[in-house]
Amino acid sequence: MTIDMSAVQELLDKEAIRSLVSRYCNAADRHDHEKMRSLYWEDAIDDHGAMFNGPAMEFIDILPQIQAPMEVLHHNATSMNIAVEGDIAEGEIYLLALHKVQEADRSYDVLVGGRFFDRYSKRDGVWKYQHHAIVADWSFVNEPSHVTLSHPFLAGAHIGRPGPDDPSYRFFKLLHRGA
């Protein structure tokens, strides 16, 4: 049996990109801006529509103020359509993203069904985002918020939260937090 090394390399590259997408979701949900910064090339573009479209590092600089009112962020990447050609790749990544927002005078939930339109590049053997764009296909809004973490069903449960106080930062040793 002959092993097609180009097919093996394509599988390795696609798995590295799937891992990149998963780390992006984790960094967004935990408000881990140091980790988020490590996922993009310095010259990368981030396109969040009217919210921001420009250099990814500038987007990450303003993320703390964007995420400040978000008590819960929960990104779920689902179908991943990835094409690789050498050291470049493209991905159409389907996602569901829940946002629970608490502002001074109101609270609301926004569940977005959408896609990431991504371009990735591999430099020195490492895949990172070259261009990351968000496309919304639908949204579901509750105002006021219907998300609650105080229901008796959750009594005694570990509760996730943005930042280094999330239980994952104490639990995991192999899944690196931060950069």
From TrEMBL:
Q: One Pfam family from the UniProt entry?
A: SnoaL_4
Which stretch is the leader sequence? none
Q: Enumerate the InterPro entries for this protein.
A: NTF2-like_dom_sf, SnoaL-like
Q: Which intervals hold domain SnoaL-like? A: 9-131
This one is known as Nuclear transport factor 2 family protein
